[in-house]
Structure formats: C-alpha cells, structure tokens
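Field reference: sequence -> structure
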Amino acid sequence: MSARSIIGRDGEREHLSAFAAAPEGQALVLRGESGVGKSALLDHVADLASQRHRVIRAAGVEAESQLPFAGLHQFLYPLLPFLDRLDEVHRKAFDVVFGKSEGTPPSVMTLGIAVLDLLSLVASQQPVLLLLDDGQWLDAASTEVCGFVGRRLTGSATKLMVGLRSDVRSAFDSAALPELAVTALSARASEELLDLRHPGLAPRIRRLVLDEARGNPLALLELPPHVRAGRAGRTPQELFGYTGVQLPLRLQHVYGTRIASLGDAVRAELLRGALDGVGAGTATALPQGSRYRMRDVDEAAACGLLDDDPVSGDFVFRHPLVRSTVVQMATPNERRAAHADLARVHLDDVERHATHLAAATVDPDARASAALEAAAESATRRGGAVTAVTWLSRAAELSETPQERSRLLGDAAFVAGHAGLLDHARKLVRTGTPSGTPESPASVVTSAYTALYEDGDVRSSHRQVLAAIEELRGNGAEAGAPEWDGTPARLVNLLLAISQYAGDEVLWRRTHGLLRSLDGLVPQNSLLYEDTWSDVVRRGGGARERLERAFTGLRDLEPWDLTRLSVAAYHVDTLSRFRPHLQRAVDREVETGAAATGMTMLHLIMLDQIAAGEWQEARLTGHRCLELTTSHGYDLFTHQTHAYLGLLAALRGEADRARGLQATVDAWARPRGVGFLTQIADAIGTAAALGEGDHEAAYLHAIGITLPGTFAPCVHQASRTLLDLVEAALRTGRAEEARRHALAAEEAGLAELSPRLALLTYGALAMTAPDAAQADALYTRATGHPDADRFPFELARIRLAHGVRLRHTQGWKAALPSLTAAAEAFEQLGAPAWTERARAELRAAGPSAAAAAAASAAPLPTLTWQERRIAELAAGGLTNKEIGARMHLSPRTVSSHLYRVFPKLGITSRAALRDALGRLPGRQSG
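Structure field:
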C-alpha cells in the first residue's frame, strides 16, 4: 500500500498532515496490530515531509532486541559523519556505545543529551524527521534513549514518529509519548481497497477475503492472488487449512505457500537472513552494518518476499511477517544449521557469535558455553546485567560437567542478585545444587547476600560466609592450592561487606584472622577493601596509592568492582576523583543492569555531594535512591539512605527531621547489630546538637562513637567526627579532653591518610593549641591545604573557629576576613544555624564587623559554592580544561557554569571576574 493510495484513513491523514506541517519538533507513536497499515502511514508522512525535512528511517529487528544500542546505531548511522563536529564528551559517548573505543557506557541521560545535540546540529541545516518502524523490537537501551529524546523535542527542528505493534509489549509503552491508534479499516473502506487493488474477483472469493481480512490492509492486499491460485474451488476451511486463528498467523500461512515453493538453497539463505535480523520493508532502507547479507535469492524476490534496499542495494524482507514465517517453517535442524553458519560469520562479535552458537547447539558443548560466558561478561560491562543472567543460565545448560554447570549457575545467581533479582537468584542456586547435598558456596553467597541486604542480618550471615570460606580452605589443603577467583573471591568480598556493616571489632578480628590464614590467596583488591573498610585509622596507610593503581584498569571493571573501589575511596576521602565514573554508570545500572549495585552508587554519589557542599543535589539523589531501595525491598539500603538523609538534614539545621530519621535508623539497626548505621545515627545526633548550640548533647552523642583521646577500632565514624568531638568538648569546658583528642589524631597520623582528615586534624590541633602563634600557624596550615576547598563545610567551621580566636587575641580587624568568609560559606551551603553563629561573632566584634555581618546577610549574587570556586579559578587565569581537570568536570560544564556566573556578577567578560569577585564579602583567598 503506497502513501498515494491510502484508503479510509481520513482522520489519521489529517492528524499526520498536521504533524508534518508543525513548525517545531514533536513525537508521535502509531500503535496497531501487525499489517494494519502503520508502515504505509509512515511512508505517507515521509512523502509529506520530504520537501522540507531530512528523512531518516529505521526499523526494530527482533534478532537484535537483546543487543544494547544496536537500534540506536541503525537510526543514527546516516548521521555518523556529523559526529566529528560534536564536543569531545559527546563524541566519546557515541564511540563507546558504538564500539569504536572502550570505556564505561554513558547513562541514558548523557547519551540522550548527546543525541539531542547531534540532531540539533543536523537540523540546523535542514529540519529532521526520524521514522522508526517496528519499534517494539528495538533493544531496551536504544528505546530508553529514543524515549528520552522524544520527550524533549519541543522547540527543536526535529520530529520523531514510531510505529508499534499493539500485540507486543515494548519499552515504548512507558515512554509517555503521544499516541495515535491505527485500527482496522471499516467495512466500506475494506471493500474499496480490495476492489481498487484486486478488481474482478469472483463474488465468493471477494467475500472470503473480506471475511478473513477483517479490515487488515495487508491481508486485503496479500491474500487474493494466493487464494485464486488453484484454490478457488475449495471451501473456506480448505482454503486456509484451519479456522479461528488470529489474522497475523493466517498471513504467515499465506507467505508460507510462497516460501515452500522456493528451492532449498534459497530457503536456507532466507533463514540465515531472518535469524540474523535482516531488515523488513522499505522502512529499513539503510546500511545493514554487520548483519548477514543475503545472496542468490532472486527467486524469492520474484515471489514478492523480498525488496531491494534503495540505499545499500541489498535484499530486505518485504514485511516482518515474511521473516517470521521463514523461521517458523524451518525445521529445528535447519534453524540450528543456519545459526551455526551465522556463528562463523560473526566470529569477531562476541555477543552475536555467542547467541548464534548457543542456538546452534543442543548437546553440552564447552566451546558454546565459554562463548556465552564471554558474551555475558561483555553485556555486564555494557550495562546489560539482566541479559547476562539469561546467557549465563544457557551457558550452564551447555556445560559438560556438573562442576562447571554449578559454577555457571552460581555466576548467574551472583549477577541476578546484583541486578535486584533475588528470587531468581535463589532459584538458580537451587537448580545448581542437587537435592540431598550440602549447601554449595554459590548458594551461600546468594543466601547471605539476601539476608544482609533484605534484612540487615550481619551476625548469622557473617557466621555462614566465614564457615563456607573455612570449608573451602580445608578442601584446598587436601586437594592442593584452590582457585580463589569466582565464587571463593565473592565469598571473601561478601564477608568484608558484612564485616563493614557490622562495624564490630570482634567480627573484624575473625575476618582478619581468616584472610591471613589464606596465605596470599586473597585478591589484591580484596586486601585493599579489608584495610579501608575495616579501620582506616590503623590500616589505611598507603591506601590512596593502592587505590589509584587499582583504578588504572577501570574499563575492565565489573559494576560491582567499581562500586567496591569507590567505597574504599570514600573511606580515604578521594571519592570526588571517581564520582564521574559513578555518575556515568549509575543510570545504566539502575535501568537495565545491576540495580542493587546502582543503589550503592547512588549512596556514594550522595556522600560526595554532601562533602562537596552540593546539598540540594544530595537530597535529590537520596530521595531517588530511597524510591529505588524501597521498591526492591532492600531494607538495609533503605535505612542506609535514611541515615545519609538524616545526616544531611542535621547539617542543614533541620533538627526535627534529622532526629526523626536518626530514631528510625537506630531503632532498625541497633537490634540487628548493624554498627555502620548506628554510628551514623550517633553522628546525626552530634551534628544536629552542634547546629542547635546544644554542645552538651553533642558531646554525649560524640563519645557514643569514640572516647576522647582514642579512635575506637573498626568504627568508621570515629575519625570522621574528630572536629565534632573536639568542638563539643571545648564548648562544654572539657579543654583537656579536647586537646587529648586532637593530639591522638596527630599521633595516629590521620593527616597522612586523607585530605579531609588532614583538614580536621590541623583544625582540631589549632582549636586546642595553648599558644596563639601556634594556633595561627595551624589554622593557616588547615585553610591552606591544597584540598581544603573540596570540603567547604569543614573549612567554614575551621575559619569560624579561627575568627573567634582572632577576635579575642588580636581584635576585630584581624578576625573580620575569617568570620566573613565563614558566614558567606555557611550561607551558600544552606546551613542557617551556622550562618547565624558566624554573623553573631561578626556583630560581637564591633560596629565595623557588624556592618560586614549585615552585608553578609544582605542579598548577594547567589553563586553556589561550585560556581564561586570555578569563577575564582577562572579569575586566576586557568582555562576551562584546566579548571575541569581540577574539579573533575568537563570543559563544557565549566563553560556552562561561567555562563551563569557572568550575569549574576553583572559582568560580560572573563577579564572582569577578579574585580567582581573582590567586591563580594569574604572572598576566600586560601
């Protein structure tokens, strides 16, 4: 049915004409059953828009629906020459997803923005119309990006139209794009179409076609020639061979007649093309890329089964139903032979080679099993953990030994657990463990993982995992050195995670003892986790250097390895260095990959946002994470999110909210012995009390974490609350305890462990120094630390303390810069209680300082902390690229920040930044 002979679609054509003529971008989904005429309507729109628009067409391919970004590559293939004109960040995003370079795949948002930029670039020359047929077969990753783009076309010069089958579920179903239903033709329109395209039909044949087509245009067009060919004398039942089957199946029967008439070689060639996803219909007139190219099939083309791709000249199927019929008519042996051929064709494509090889294999086959395992690893790194579970399960089916089958099912269960599929993970380990046999190590991983993350059961899960590792160690001693990769390594890492959440010295002592007994078998990264997660004060020396070495192989990391290393980075306060990697990975993992790992990624991003003073962003991240953890039933992660939100509320002066969250976390975590969370609960109480000026309560909360002069073993908040305990002790007349605690930090070498601990240590020593000159030197050392600006809240507190001391020892003039800088920093952070405290100190300093306090309270240019820092670096002469490298941002992001800063400061050029910043009160010079 050509666009020029559309019949009975007056309403649809009116709608589509308005769509094509609309002055700005928009999206529309055409939804209807197979053969109802969606492709013809897409052709119609292409004709309407061809004079003014650049028309780009694509079609979903069922065989590629599990290959991440295959559809996006097909869609954007004609636009690839424009990629060189994009900025480096967006160009690299396309290079990664299209396989031109290695790296962590970008998130849906990052890739979607890159696609929008590309389309904007192309549309600046000529408006663009994107037409996608058979969108239900588009892979999930590409569908997410198309949906993201489609929702953001308003105001652009790009339009998107998608054709979807109504009888197949699709990710487009939840894309929230406008839809136009394409229904069957009316009886009158059906008769008109049939009489126009097939005049002179015998009345009985005409009635038969109309009854069987039931308004389906494709059936009306395709049935008559084959009904007439030697069958006109038969009854309706004989004509179709069966009754009561939905129309698409009957159409497959019609195509099957033509297919059966072909020679064996031609049918085999069609089968190879169909199984490899060769396009169908004129909507796929685009480069075929690495898909199979059908040859010597002119006989099929002559039968009307194939069309010529007008771009490549290759054969494509006339309709998706042809492709489906080819596959259905083939015998199992024929399909397996075709898959075997295709596996040889795609030797260089890990995932496609594996899927074809597995489909070609019936009996256990180590080669096919290994290929699927490699494909699963590839999919996992590309954000396809759910697909990886399926491939690993199939690999287990094809494995040749019970041990290998059990191992692969354990791998599948492990990935399923990280993908948030705990029920499926449990089923997989049960399948891999014969009845009547002891619990396998893989089943221990799954059951302990579930107990920990669903219910926070640290005690029994620790015992269970510890016993499993001891048993493996004993078995290894009897049979020679065991292999400590795969499940044994997972057990070790899970034991470390359980120990971290327990935060208990006794459990950690057992963990340390067991790992020592393994005599060099533990992976190096696991040893790094052991040292940083357990007790950074006593075991964190050199951890930052080890962490940097571990991150050099970032592109080869699984998502959970990235997360574990990032947790180590948090403990040594270098998380900002790695946050960009987490932000690129988290959307991908949450949506199509390791959802549970994505929860931890969100926790880590939130923690770094809190440290960097991006408190509003941190709150949004926390609520996003809370929604995810709640929907998956991960109680441990839910209460961990509550804990971080409570800590943030305490810093922001929202004491009631902070204490409510503190109570929720404490009531859940303390009975379970989840020390990691009870420590944060105490830290929330400390921070909330300090914000309110209740220093006695703050002191009592702080010593619940660790006593003055000590850093309790295996208590991660002991060093993090150093400044809190010292300040609370000083404010309650416990100067001796405060000094003892500061000196303990110096003696423990905290300043060498992390930049934040260096800032806290020098600040605590300065606050407790008995000599004014010594105090000034230590304050200068703290505020002048090269990484001090990365921790704006702690820096502002130290500046406030310095200003107070200077006011008492040297007068208001000496105190003014520090107090003003502190007041402004607290204001920008959104910490009203601390802001008021700094202003009160300014007012107490005298009239001139009081004027400065009033100025700091007056409306100022609302620069965020990050905007101010970027502006200061730019004023110092750094380029956007140099600023980005220092702050772990892209040059484009730096440019966007400066674009917003200029009007806020009332300037129009970079050269005016220094003077404009100098007019702001309390410009930070350190």
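Note: Residues 458-479 form the longest helix (22 residues).
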